């Protein structure tokens, strides 16, 4: 029987990696394809082979886009600390206090509060973990889409097509806004779920601690 974590991996692979990679491949194919198909590798012998090559390229580019997108998290952290700081009574601080009461100080350095919260939800409440994973997948999709918009703008500028480049840059703004909102909500939901589980069940009964 499929587990919620398996579903999350499939959603993450599709929305955060494969779909942005497919968009990037579609943009790059007419521009880079003639340099690759023929000179470097044989042209596809059938439509099925062509689709296989497209999906392979999309998956590869999707991982590169995902890697570049991970650098945006630093910018997110700076903005989050400025506009959405964690107060003493925030869900983050509450979850951190619970973690600190259950985990040895030496073990606290191995994982941050969000990583610990995700692990707790997977172990204690898979339905809550799936809720957080869905939000996280959304945030990573829009993060990757932001990179795709930047790539499109660069390609259009290189071709002297400034209007499409401007449209791509404008579209990057709502992509970042949605990424920011989904990422903030995913972390907040994780902390809220942990605090709720702790009050309802008492996490110390099922999770090792100090």
**Main beta-sheet strand count, sense and barrel state:** none
Percentage of residues in strands: under 5%
Number of helices: 8
What is the radius of gyration? 21 Å
Helix share of residues? over 70%
Going by helix content, strand content and strand pairing, the class is mainly alpha
Topology as a string of helices (H) and strands (E): HHHHHHHH
Mean pLDDT: 84
What would you call the shape?
A: elongated
Low-pLDDT segments, ≥5 res: 206-210
First-residue to last-residue Cα separation: 35 Å
Number of E-state strands: 0
Structure commentary:
By secondary structure, this protein is mostly helical. Helix content is about 80%, strand content about 0%. Helix 2 (about 45-70) crosses helix 7 (about 125-160). The two termini are about 35 Å apart. Residues about 205-210 have low confidence and may be disordered.
Task: Describe what is shown at a glance.
The chain has helices at 4-36, 47-70, 72-83, 91-102, 105-108, 113-124, 126-158, 162-200.
Q: In terms of topology, how is this protein built?
A:
Blueprint lengths: L3 H33 L10 H24 L1 H12 L7 H12 L2 H4 L4 H12 L1 H33 L3 H39 L10
Helix pairs in contact: 1-2, 1-7, 2-7, 4-6, 4-8, 6-7, 6-8, 7-8
Labels describing this entry:
single chain, 210 residues, mainly alpha, 8 helices, elongated, disordered C terminus
């Amino acid at each position: 029987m499929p587990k919620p974590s398996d579903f999350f991996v499939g959603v993450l692979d599709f929305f955060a990696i494969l779909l942005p990679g497919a968009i990037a491949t579609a943009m790059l194919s007419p521009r880079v394809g003639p340099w690759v198909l023929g000179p470097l590798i044989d042209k596809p012998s059938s439509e099925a082979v062509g689709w296989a090559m497209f999906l392979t390229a999309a998956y590869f580019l999707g991982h590169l886009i995902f890697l570049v997108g991970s650098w945006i998290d630093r910018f997110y952290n700076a903005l989050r600390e400025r506009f959405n700081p964690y107060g003493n009574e925030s869900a983050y601080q509450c979850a951190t206090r619970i973690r600190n009461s259950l985990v040895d100080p030496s073990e606290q350095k191995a994982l941050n509060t969000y990583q610990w919260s995700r692990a707790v939800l997977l172990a204690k409440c898979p339905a809550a973990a799936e809720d957080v994973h869905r939000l996280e997948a959304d945030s990573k999709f829009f993060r990757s889409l932001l990179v795709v918009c930047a790539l499109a703008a660069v390609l259009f500028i290189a071709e002297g097509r400034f209007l499409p480049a401007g449209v791509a840059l404008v579209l990057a703004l709502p992509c970042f806004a949605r990424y920011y909102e989904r990422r903030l909500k995913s972390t907040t939901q994780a902390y809220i779920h942990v605090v709720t589980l702790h009050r309802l069940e008492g996490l110390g009964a099922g999770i090792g601690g100090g």
